[in-house]
Specification:
The structure is a homodimer.
Chain A lengths: L4 E6 L5 H12 L2 E3 L2 H10 L3 H10 L1 H8 L8 H19 L2 E4 L3 H4 L6 E7 L2 H12 L6 H20 L11 E4 L4 H19 L1
Parallel strand pairs in A: 1-3, 1-4, 2-3, 4-5
Chain lengths: ~200, ~200
């Protein structure tokens, strides 16, 4: 089988990262989330700690930095370009699962790529965020909505597409059937899609 | 197993109707597309030929009729309400697959309901529309885009939601892997989802 890639975009708390990790393990291919920061750092010359800080700072500083009134490429855009280059190189080099970072858009013209979007009802996500991430405090719904809003803004800004629009992905699903079952369904779809693309 | 419903929204030419029919057959449950017209006719008192004509007239006359300056409920809204009532009654009475007609929105508060959206790349749809429906003439892409535009407008108008927004559905997929394979994946998802919902 030729090299292929799987990109996963996900609502916060839908288990997208856990699903991606399990999927990569079952498919026997690489898994890249934070690991992309190291690759982007090598590409950009920016320090990986700095990229990671920017990655965690989220919406407010992201947009602030994007509109800095200097005659240089703003830092978030530099990071986006470096991550995009790292994702493209990676997808050429090896089969892999890539979490977030507009992977579906970056690999938009790659034939052997399955684009996934994972979402789930709010009550399911609240449970998962409390149990798995110990986050959200007393306002988990507000916390989750804020993370989703950041992800949507980031995606829409850099891609000019709409985050969560079904047609941007090959398969989108509600993961509240559970992580193992979601992985099973996605694995079948990926195998069918890639065998057809070859 | 309790009664359950499956709703299918679909891009024009993605094979959504054929997939729904095959799915209903494999699940051993009812299939409703044009059949809903008869049920809505019984509900509304409008003649089924008239509803069918309205169903086929598409965008221009649809919006024209909706804004008729008479102090009565406009005909398209009467039909929408009658179809919605028919869909709700049907979902209470028996397990079924329902094609189009904003089924996912109409059954929005029903627990035992799997909401599906089917789409596919344009080149796949052009082939299917030519082969299966003998439609589209010399401008199949333009023809397909017009049908999609009508479906999106109808859905967005009556539901105030966004047609094709992944989170409105439980599973959305690109059917270019083929009809039989798409049916297989959807069947597995439906069985998992319904067994969890019970």
């Amino acid at each position: 089988m030729k090299t292929y890639s799987v990109t996963i975009a996900r609502e916060y708390g839908s288990g997208g990262r856990l699903i991606g990790k399990q999927l990569a393990s079952e498919l026997g291919i690489g898994f890249y989330d934070k690991e992309l920061i190291v690759l982007a750092a090598r590409e950009s010359g920016l320090h990986e700690d700095f990229i990671e800080t920017m990655d965690q700072k989220k919406a407010s500083s992201f947009f602030y930095n994007l509109y800095m009134p200097y005659n240089v490429v703003p830092i978030p855009e530099q990071i986006f370009l470096a991550q995009s280059k790292a994702i493209k190189d990676l997808a050429e080099r090896e089969s892999c699962v890539i979490i977030g970072r507009c992977g579906d858009y970056v690999l938009g013209d790659v034939k052997n790529c399955v684009r996934i979007f994972i979402h789930a009802p709010m009550e399911y996500r609240v449970e998962l965020v409390k149990k798995e991430y110990q986050e959200g405090g007393n306002s988990p719904v507000e916390f989750i909505r804020k993370q989703d809003k950041y992800r949507a803004s980031y995606y829409d800004f850099f891609t000019q597409h709409k985050w969560g629009r079904a047609q941007n992905y090959n398969i989108c699903l509600d993961s509240s059937i559970g992580i193992a079952k979601t992985v099973g369904i996605l694995k079948t779809y990926i195998e069918e899609y890639i065998s057809k693309a070859e």
